[in-house]
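From the pipeline queue, job 12 of 40. The input is one protein chain; the requested action is below.

Action: predict structure.
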Amino acid sequence: MSSNILTYKGEWRDTYTFEDGSSYTTEWRPNQAQNSSATLSAILFGSVVQSSSSAYGGIQYLALGGGDSNWDLSPPTQNDKPYSATTLVNEIDRIQVANGTNVAYLDPVTEAVSVTPTRVLQVNILIPFDRGIGDLREFALFGGDATSTQDSGYMINWVTHSVISKDSRVQILRQLKLKWLTLEEVTI
């Protein structure tokens, strides 16, 4: 008996723009899909049948966190970042993802924006000059029943990174791609 695996992979990058107008963009880096994203997928699929699930939505917030300052000396490994985690270690800000303006479908081959739904999503979220102030070491996308309240909702993905000392002189355009893989693309 064979089994099918449905999974997705994610990647992210930042574009930093400084108050003097200069900017630079980082390379694409991988992120970690969280177990709770599978539960959220089931809720969204089931919402067609169960009207009580209609309060749940897809990607709703980008949460920014300070993480753990010990990560500056010893960055966390995959073993340190459990897939079962449902909250950031130290959430400090949330930015709402505006439906239709920050999320786009991409062609799976060319990565051009598609007017019809595909299996690739790109989320672009601006962290303005006056938001996310402090030492940032982690972020995640949240959906389901997420609100602006810290630690609410279903964690979709989680990224830890080198410390970014964010102040009011820089804004960050954070771009994330989520790609649902075909059976041929899955490696075990």
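Job complete. The chain has one domain: 8-181.
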